[in-house]
Amino acid sequence: EQEEQYEIEERRTLTSLENFVPHHDGWSELCLDYLTNLISALCGEPMALYKEKLNVKPPGGSGFAPHLDSPSLRIALGDDGPQEFVTVMVAIDDMTVRNGCLRVVKG
């Protein structure tokens, strides 16, 4: 009787990328110049990029559970850090309900 052998294929998939803006001219211009100036003008006070993150959702991948960004930022920065935040999303692909678009809810 011959024993069956199974080979397990390990696959790693990139799902997010952080700290890339300073290393790419196009993203740097968009985020550090255009968006920072636009958000500062809208808010009436100087704003700065705190964190950038590119989320990659592969076909068939799961999404993210509903969450608020600001509580995690307040915890990371502590009481001495800024208490007001603006989240900006830049879509690099079409976003539809079918492919898992971001949903924003009031509150």
What does this structure look like?
The chain has 107 residues and is mainly alpha-helical. Helices cover 26% and strands 6% of the residues. The chain contains two helices and two strands, in the order E-H-E-H. The protein has helices spanning 25-43, 69-77; strands at 16-18, 53-55. It starts with 15 loop residues before the first strand and ends in a 30-residue tail after the last helix.
Stretches with pLDDT under 50, minimum 5 residues: none
Return the string of H and E elements.
EHEH
- Strand line-up of the largest beta sheet: 1-2
Q: What's the average pLDDT? A: 84
User: Total number of helical segments?
Assistant: 2
Shape: elongated
Termini gap: 65 Å
Q: Helical proportion? A: 25-40%
Tally of strands: 2
Beta-strand level of the residues, as a percent range?
5-15%
- The whole-angstrom Rg is 19 Å
Return the structural class. Answer: mainly alpha
**In this structure, how is the largest beta sheet organized?**
2 strands, antiparallel
How would you summarize what this structure contains?
This protein is mostly helical and 107 residues long. It contains two helices and two strands.
What secondary-structure arrangement, pairings included, does this model have?
Blueprint: E1 16-18, H1 25-43, E2 53-55, H2 69-77
Antiparallel strand pairs: 1-2
